[in-house]
Amino acid sequence: MQSIPVDTARLGILRCAIAPELKYSNAETKEVKKDRDGNPVWTVAVLVRQEARRISVIEIAVPGEQKGVVEGIEVRVTGLVAFAWAMGDRHGISFRADDITPVTSGSGKAGGAV
Question: For the chain, N or C: smaller number of CB within 10 Å?
Fold first, then answer.
């Protein structure tokens, strides 16, 4: 699987669409997926809005719980990498990041709602 670093500065405004949820390696047994270091993997759906373009939603896997990330707030994504994958006749792109944090305004409060 080839990893492709993503320049998040070129993505425009990023907002949390769905708050962090644990990712399961087995949905039936609710076995939590873990990264190489043994940290639980969480997923966050993020709205990407570039100027004068449509909104896209990407699901990003991150290690550990992302504190303060709630639906509707603007977020900062650190270390975003895309991976092209294929399994049989299915294919797509998955995303992973080192961290997702709330963007705070000058007042110290998290950004406003969508």
Answer: N
Report how far Cα 23 is from the mean position of its chain's Cα atoms: 12
Amino acid at 58: I
103/111 Cα distance (integer angstroms): 6
Here the tokens at position 110 are: 């998290």
Summarize pLDDT for 19-69 with one digit per residue, the tens: 999 999 888 899 999 999 999 999 999 999 877 778 899 999 999 989 999
Q: What is the DSSP letter of 111?
A: P
- Coil, helix or strand for 74? strand
Predicted TM-score (pTM) of the model is: 0.84
CA distance 23 to 66: 13
Tally of domains in the chain: 1
3-state secondary structure 20-66: EEECEEECCCCEECECCCCCEEEEEEEEEECCCCCEEEEEEEEECCC
